[in-house]
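Handout, section 3.2

Students often ask what a structure token actually looks like in practice. Rather than define it abstractly, here is a full record for Cellulose biosynthesis protein CelD. The first block is the sequence as you would receive it.
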Amino acid sequence: MWREIRAGTTAPANPFLDPVFTAAVGRVRAGARVAVLQQDGTPVGYLPYEKGTLGRGRAIGLGVSDSQGAVLQPGTVVDPRRLLRACGLASWEFDTLEDGQDAFAAHAVEEHASPVVDLGSGYDGYLESLRARAPGFVRQTRAKERRLARRVGEVRFVPDSRDPAALRQLMRWKSAQYRRTGRRDRFAQEWITGLVDLLARGGEPECRGQLSVLYAGDRPVAAHFGLRSATVLSWWFPAYDRAFGAYSPGILLHLRMLEAAAADGIRTVDLGSGPARYKESLKTRDLRVYEGAVVRPVPGGAAHLLAREPARAARRFVRDRPRLAATAARALQGAGTLRERLRRRPDGAGGGERGAGQAAGGEAKVRR
């Protein structure tokens, strides 16, 4: 019924709003819930969410889900605060609310661009438009691919790999990237690693994990793990081996993936919100997504505002000032570099699990 209602809307079939994603989060997060909205005993909508202490709620999989909101039958009118009260929630937080969720978007405090690639006219049509926008981009990328093949080995692409070793390698690359840039390592969180493992083993056509790997010779040089439905591929965790950075293996992988996706019936590739130069190079247009929270005037709602809004306001202040944002990014990267050096020190001060804890202490000093 969930899928039937979703299919009756004009929203894209984003796999993050499929019931399989919610069920998978429910296996790794104890607070996962689904509110079922009924009219005359018949379901007319679903709201997946997570419930925490003091009634603080959040979108299902917040922090890793790239499309959030309620699945509502067209014409269904929802009072968000009344819905929260029925769920026993004081607040409900979202950071990538999909466009068209008007009842919840009224509570947004930020609007973000979420770039997408349209493949409705096929890969050849997309490539033609890419060449028209950036004539040298495709030519330079192909030249790098040829150099990689000459110097390392034949370049081959596996669009849908089931190799667990390749998935672990991707996680290691991504963890190193998070640490290097001073950001929180998502794969250090057990529930996220567990969620990826679950989705990687799934086979549902409307929501399944897909691991794509680019090899040079027998060596993986770039990989991506994302979620897909029959028509939408959601970009999720891309990473590459920095030893081959001169060949732009990430871009090589992206173009191979887009070609394979178009051949397999994918019409939209959602690159996800957040700034990145490669997204600007590859996108055909932007969707709009929203960040904010529905908050009820109860003690738990006040707790949410005190805990979340000052940090969000500070982040918005920095982001809206490019020079300050650039300085903050450099500081984060510097802290990440220092943390990596401490973690790898051969004298034991930064090696192994104990060293990682000591490095975290060092990072805290730098940030102060």
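Discussion prompt for tutorial groups: Residues 327-367 form one domain. How would you have guessed this from the sequence alone?
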